[in-house]
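A reminder before we start the practical. When you read a complex entry, don't treat the lines as separate problems. The point of joint prediction is that each chain is placed relative to the others, so the output describes one connected object in space. Small molecules and nucleic acid strands, if listed, are placed in the same frame. In the example below there are two entries. Take a minute to note the order of the lines before looking further.
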Amino acid sequence: MADTLERTKKDFTSDQEPRWCPGCGDYAILAAVQSFMPELGVAPENTVFVSGIGCSGRFTYYMDTYGFHGIHGRAPALATGIATANPDLTVWVVTGDGDALSIGGNHLIHALRRNVNLKILMFNNQIYGLTKGQYSPTSEVGKVTKSTPFGSVDRPFDPVALALGAAATFVARTIDNDRKHLTDVLRQAAEHPGAAFVEIYQNCNVFNDGAFDLLRDKTQGVHNQIRLVHGEPIVFDDGAQCVRLAANGRLEIAAVADTDPAQIITHDVHGPPSLAFTLAHLSQGPTEPTCIGVFREVQRTTYGEAVHEQIARARERSGDGDLETLLTGGDTWTV
Amino acid sequence: MRSFGAGRQYAWLERTTPDTDTRSDPHRLMIATVEERERVVVRFAGDSGDGMQLTGDRFTNATALLGNDLATLPDFPAEIRAPAGTVHGVSAFQIQFASTDVTTPGDHADVLVAMNPAALKADLPTVARGGTLILNEDAFQQRNLDKAGYETDPRTDGSLDGYQVYSVPMTSITVRAVEPVGVGKKEAERAKNMFALGLVSWMYDRPTAPTLEWLERKFGGKPEILDANVAAFNAGYNFGETTELFAHRVEVKAAPAEAGTYRNVAGAQALAWGLIAASRASDLPLFYASYPITPASDLLHELSRHKHFGVITVQAEDEIAAANMALGAAFTGQLAVTGTSGPGLDLKAETIGLAVITELPMIIVDVQRAGPSTGMPTKTEQGDLLAAMFGRHGESPIPIVSASSPSECFDVALDAARVAIRYRTPVILLSDSFLQNSSEPWRLPDVSTIERIDPNFAEPNGAGFHPYARNDDLARPWAIPGTPGLQHRIGGLERENVTGSISYDAENHERMTDLRREKVAGIAASLPELEVDDPTGDADLLVLGWGSTAGSIRAAVRRARDGGDKVAHAHLRWLNPLPSNTGDVVRRYPRVLIPEINEGQLSLLVRAKFLVDARSFSRVQGRPMWADELDDAIEEALRG
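Here is the predicted structure of the whole assembly.
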């Protein structure tokens, strides 16, 4: 429900003082979201932020919209109820890597599969911060934490690949400290009708500082961010490197100088998921050149639309339900 | 019409209780005499694929239309198709019908229709001594006897002495009757349940038209199947009429009933319709989220059919999701319900706690089944009372309401919605497997008299909004998204009273804990007092119950009074809070007996709360409590 009222960041900022650790990446994300909300033309009263447990969970308190801070992992289910019951609302889910991919993994994949009209922001810091530093389902193998003093032995999820595998209609990745890229991706997510999944690389400066430096750091980032732009050749590192089709049909990173321009992959967000999936797997994690931007964007009926359309059709067919007719339907007798 | 072959001699019909051979009675040769009986219990039993539930259901319908009072008990295995012919694959349906009021499906069957040896073996213990057994003779072959675990043929080894045994080749007569229709042998054999239905319909003088009309509705699009079933049904009916096999027909006259329009209703239907009625009464769309689980799925099935009432049904990815979706819908201002059975209640516990602290209206239906763990999913129990009461961490009080009969589920759904909405609280509604599946005649309510439920949504008033400011009921405002100026944040963290800001303040936490308790306790002021059925007013014993044991308790108490004992009965609908006079009631009587299908959960609460020496009578056998086992318990309590 877009309208044309003039609003500012203030209209979306609650009176609660944010309480994250100084230097936390969450501050930057909050500022970006509060700043760009007015551009969407959606009134604060028609906006709902839903969160789970973890540092990201506090996000709802700082937005002057309707907000529901749920229990661990269940935000996508809570939000599914909200968005399905009232499709006129714009519903955002704020979650983290532990919340969304560990305890709440089931709800995430099903919200994406159903294409519930939710904007899901997953702050990935590759660590459990609120519980003070255990490894998470996105931590790299060998991660030494309090719960894994000899290093973790289990492989992490790639959140983007997971979302694509769950048939998400919008999948993107961005970085907390790149305000422009972050805002640009969030805007596209907001405009997408349906479930939008955005992984945000977020630095936890207390328990996992520097996890994304290769991409976040200005000087290193230039060489390692593979920025995906729909319809454009995938070239990065100031034009020095590209993603191209290898002889075996796989994608590989190569020097532009050594590559026939026809071999350079042109990014396509609307095609079949195979390209997006391959791009998601181009790197093993943010420790080598990694894709950011929108991986995939396709249109599909949203869950809420389908549910309400079914109700509308049932009413067309049978008229609005009448309680007395319901009770007396079938065999009755009179005494 | 004798579609199974007119003029044929039924030499293969054999009655195995020669002492009561009525074939020698000259009157029997002319026409079956009619015996009038006050009440009869019939049980149909067969393989789970034999269509016994359908047979029972149809018989019930014809019985209801005749005006008998009745109660039914479907009793089926968890396996959809357990190995054919085995005891654990037996599916049964029991009905008691009477010319007076019926309170239970009957402790013991007067008639058992057994479609195979396994059904006989499994259900013979449910048959009253001297009762009638109607056996499908075709199924009593060595192979089936072996599968049922019979070492010798029970029909000839004397183990059925004392029963009236009728051996009828149901399968082969059905196949012959269906022959002209031209369906395959398998389809023909499948119709044998209709033969059994026809036969029992004749025995009890049930009208045939409702069954024939129903078959037409069901199989109208498949003429061959329709004809086969009609032929089988008629064959069974005519078999009763034309053979001299059966001593007599039994007539059970219509029960006197209050004037009104009646229908037969099962608990699952009544509960679903009650929720729809609550949605209409409150003008709130009904939102039902659930995960498939026996025996609660019928509620999801029933509600899913009524989308033209604006009902949203969501089959969630799991129990936890279902609870959260419902809570999300509650936040948006809908009548939010999630339904489950025991294992699902465990999974929903944390979300129910979230509903408690966010103080949102929501209904959690728990159709109890035998536990713990997976337990016996298709069998009944009242084992979740304490789980509903205390099964969450922290101090987490919640109102609990229960239904005591299938039709009462309608009223209880309305009650639950009324309390949830008025007090902004989750409410647990306890049903059970027995209530959900069994049925009884229901005098339809006048829907225009259903009292309106005011959602009383918060409206902007220009002043600052306080999401935890409370009214006289201690309920907080229900401010729904989309309302300008009332944006607020709620969640699982402790809130400061009035403002709703997050608070770790020690005094505030204690205050909020008290408020949540007081709010739930205060609901008692809006509930009717506990009524006691005590004709003389000076009973020596109070029998206090809750839930689906009501019928059995009523029957047992009545018998005790007939025997000269002074026994009172009170039955709780609300279990939390208890009606305000509950303490007075339990203290008024010298002895209190609390029968439950658990190990004494209500009695634990009553003893703890009122310091009375309430005695527990407990049965946990996955079946309804029988009135006759209560007879003994009452006797013992009176003498003890």
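Discuss with your neighbour: DSSP finds eleven helices and 14 strands in chain A. What might explain this?
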